[in-house]
Amino acid sequence: MPLEDIGPPTVTLTGINTRAVDRNGTAVIISASQEAIDDFGWGVILPMASRKYDDGMFDANATPMVRVTVADCQRWMDDNA
Fold it and tell me: What is the pLDDT of residues 5-51, one digit of tens each?
C-alpha cells in the first residue's frame, strides 16, 4: 500500500522523520537515516517505506513508524534495477 508523504519533516539526531498516510488515511511516521537521505533521496525512501509497511516491518506504536536505512534503499535499488 503506497504511503503518501504529508510532512512536515522533523530533523532528528540520526536523520529525518516525516508524516505519511496509507490509502486508508492511517497515519504513519517514516524515519529515514541521514545517510539514506544523502545517498538515495526520498524518491527511493518512500517506496521502500511503503514496502516495509506492507510487509509489517514497522514499530507498532500509537502511530506506526517505518525505519529506512541505506541497506533498505540498496535492497530496493537491487530489486528494481
Answer: 998 999 999 999 999 999 999 999 999 999 999 999 999 999 999 99
pTM for the structure as a whole:
0.91
Distances from the Cα of 75 to the Cα of 4, 7, 60, angstroms: 21, 25, 23
Contact 42, 54 (CB under 8 A): no
Angle at 34 between CA 28 and CA 35, to 5 degrees: 120
Nearest to 69 by CA among 15, 6, 2: 15
Cβ 16 vs Cβ 32: under 8 Å: yes
The cell numbers describing 51, all together, are 514496502
DSSP string, 43-68: HHHHHHHHHHHHTT-SB-SSS-EEEE
